[in-house]
Amino acid sequence: MEERPVNSVVINIDGTIQGVKSTLTEDLFTGTRRRASHVEPVNSVLRWLFHQIRSRVSDDSRLAAFTRTWPCHWQARIFDGPVLGPFVTREQAIHVEIAYLQHQMMENKL
């Protein structure tokens, strides 16, 4: 299993806190959360199917867990930003996604 980047949070001058979802941020955040990206299959048919399934089931369902195991190439689609990838595994895409988002937060670009 690949190691994920160390999680960090940014406390902005206005008092807002930004961070990538983790056990650390779960304890800190009490306000509004917004998604910054999706890790999804590169193949357009699989990507469509992935989003159809994931929009209809909870994140902790068996079906959602199944979609995370698909043997395909993955990409990290950053909202209002680049598409990173393709990556051979979902874990690689997640690793790069987190590193990218944390860098953007540190540069105050998110």
In a nutshell, what does this entry contain?
By secondary structure, the chain is of the alpha+beta class.
Q: Would you mind describing this structure in some detail?
A:
This protein is α+β, with helices and mostly antiparallel strands and 110 residues long. The chain has a domain at 9-42 and 69-106. Helices cover 36% and strands 19% of the residues. The protein is built from 4 helices and 5 strands. The strands form 2 sheets. The protein has a 3-stranded antiparallel sheet with strand order 3-4-5. A two-stranded antiparallel sheet has the order 1-2. A hairpin with a 4-residue loop joins strand 4 (74-78) and strand 5. The protein starts with 8 loop residues before the first strand and ends with a helix.
Strand content: 15-25%
Specify the overall morphology.
globular
The strands making up the biggest β-sheet line up spatially as 3-4-5
- Poorly predicted regions are none
Please compute the radius of gyration using only Cα atoms: 15 Å
Helix proportion: 25-40%
Task: Indicate the mean pLDDT.
Answer: 84
Q: Main sheet?
A: 3 strands, antiparallel
**Structural class of the secondary elements?**
alpha+beta
Could you state the order of secondary-structure elements as H and E?
Answer: EEHEHHEEH
What's the helix count? 4
Gap from first CA to last CA: 29 Å
Give a count of the beta strands, DSSP E runs of length 2 or more: 5
What are the main properties of this structure?
19% strand, 110 residues, alpha+beta, 36% helix
